[in-house]
Amino acid sequence: MKTLEWEDNKLKLIDQTKLPDELTYVWCEDYRDVIVAIRDMTVRGAPAIGVTAGFGMALADIEGVDLDKAAREIKAARPTAVNLFWAVDRVLDSDDPLKEALTMYDEDMATNRAIGKFGAEVIEEGDTILTHCNAGALACVDYGTALGVIRAAHDQGKNINVICDETRPRGQGASLSVWEMQQENIPVKLIPDVASGFLMSQGKIDKVVIGADRIAKGGVVNKVGSFMVALAAKHHDIPFYVAAPYSTFDNEINIYDTVIEERDGDEVRYYGGARICPKGTEVINPAFDITPKELITGIITEKGIIDPI
Ligand code: MRU
Predict the structure, then answer these.
(1) What is the pTM of this model?
(2) Angle at which helices 46-63 and 97-120 pack, to 10 degrees?
(3) What is the spatial distance between Cα 130 and Cα 127, in angstroms, rounded to a whole number?
(4) Measured between alpha carbons, how far is 269 from 180 in angstroms, rounded to an integer?
(5) Mean pLDDT of the region 96-119
(6) Could you tell me the distance, in angstroms and rounded to a whole number, from the CA of residue 212 to the centre of ligand 1?
(7) Is residue 163 classed as helix, strand or coil in its secondary structure?
(8) Sign of torsion, CA 191 170 147 213?
(9) 3-state helix/strand/coil string of 14-76
(10) Which of 142, 213, 250, 289 is catalytic?
(11) Using alpha carbons only, how large is the chain's radius of gyration in Å?
(12) What distance in Å separates the CA atoms of residue 206 and residue 227, rounded to the nearest whole number?
C-alpha cells in the first residue's frame, strides 16, 4: 500500500481525510485535481505533497497545459512545505515531466529507507519514542521519515514503544500515526498534546523523533506544537531528533522567513463536529511552528545524521 500511485496516466491517492476508519482512494485525472487534493489535505506531509505535485506537473504536460502556468498554480496550493516548490521546479527543469515525477517517486522510497537505517542507530532497546503529527508512510510515498526511523528500529528487533501526540487541531497523530503503528504491530499509545511535558518529567519518554516541512538556517519548521515539545525535551535533557530528506532543506532563506500557513479557524472552533467555544470566537490557527536549532540534537537525513544548519 502506497500513499500515492501512478496508474493509467492518473494519480491515485489515499484519502487521508477518511482515515483511520476508511481506507479509500481518490483519483486525480488532471492537474487541477492535484491542486485540490493538496489544498484540502487529501494528501499531506511534505514529501508526499512534493511527489504529488510532481505528478501534477506530469498531468499538466499530458493535458498540454503551459507548464509555467501549472507550476504557479500548483505552488499556490499550500505555502509552507518546501518539498512542493522543490518538486515543481525539478519537473519544470526536466525534459520529460512524467519520467522525472516517476524518478522522484522511486527516490522518495529509497530516501526513507536510508533515513530509517541511519536513524535506527540512535534508537536503543527499550526506548519509548514520542512523535508529533504524522511523518510516516502517509506523509511520503511509503515508509516515512520519523516513523521510518521507528519502523527500522522495530525491524531490527528492538523492543520499542511509541507515543503519539494527538496533534490538534487536525489530529494527524491520532488518526494517522497511531493507525500506521497499529498496522505494523508496533506498541503505541495516544496522548493529548498537552501531556508530553508531564510524561517527560516522569521519565516516560526517552527520545523524540519528528519530521520536517522545511529546514533552513536557524532551525526547523514542522507541525505546530513541535516547538513546545522541543522546549520540554531540552528541559528534561531528552534527545530531540528531526528526520527529513534533503528535499526538505531550503538553502535560500532564514528559517524565520518561512511563510507559515494559517488555516481556517473552524478547525479550532469545532471538535468532533461540535462547536467548543462561543459563536464568533476569533481564532489564531497557524499550521506550523519553528524549532530553533539550539533545541535539536540532530537531523537524520538519507546521508547520515547531521547538525542543524
Ligand atoms: O499539515 P500537514 O499534515 O501536511 O503537516 C505535516 C507535518 O507537519 C508533519 O509533522 C511532518 O513532519 C512533515 S511531513 C514528513
Answers:
(1) 0.98
(2) 170
(3) 10
(4) 27
(5) 98
(6) 7
(7) strand
(8) negative
(9) ECCCCCCCCCCEEEECCHHHHHHHHHCCCCCCHHHHHHHHHHHHHHHHHHCCCHHHHHHHHHC
(10) 213
(11) 19
(12) 17
pLDDT score for 46: 98
Q: How far is the CA of 164 from the centre of ligand 1 (A)?
A: 14
Q: Cell numbers for 64, please give them.
A: 498540454
State pLDDT tens for residues 220-276: 999 999 999 999 999 999 999 999 999 999 999 999 999 999 999 999 999 999 999
Report the 10 Å Cβ neighbour count for 228: 17
Residue 76 has pLDDT above 90, yes or no: yes
Let me know: does 240 contact 80? Beta carbons within 8 Å.
Answer: no
Q: What is the mean pLDDT of residues 198-211?
A: 98
The helix (H) or strand (E) run that includes residue 114 is helix 97-120
CA angle 41/86/79 to nearest 5° reads 45
Q: What percent of the chain has pLDDT over 90?
A: 100
* pLDDT number for residue 1: 83
Q: Is 213 a catalytic residue?
A: yes
Amino acid code (one letter) for 59: L
Q: Phi/psi at 203 (nearest 5 deg)?
A: 70, 25
Q: Are the beta carbons of 173 and 208 closer than 8 angstroms?
A: no
What gap in Å lies between CA 163 and CA 188, rounded to an integer? 6
Q: Which three cell numbers stand for residue 138?
A: 502517509
Q: How far apart are CA 257 and CA 267, in angstroms?
A: 25
Strand partners, 12: 5, 27
Q: 106 pLDDT band (50/70/90 cuts)?
A: very high
- Give the N- to C-terminal CA distance of the chain in Å, as an integer: 34
How far, in Å, CA of 122 to CA of 208, rounded?
A: 11
Task: With beta carbons less than 8 A apart as the criterion, state whether 220 and 289 touch.
Answer: no
* Cell matching residue 61: 504536460
Residue nearest to atom 7 of ligand 1 (CA): 223
Nearest CA owner, ligand 1 atom 14: 45
CA 79 – CA 255 distance, rounded (Å): 14
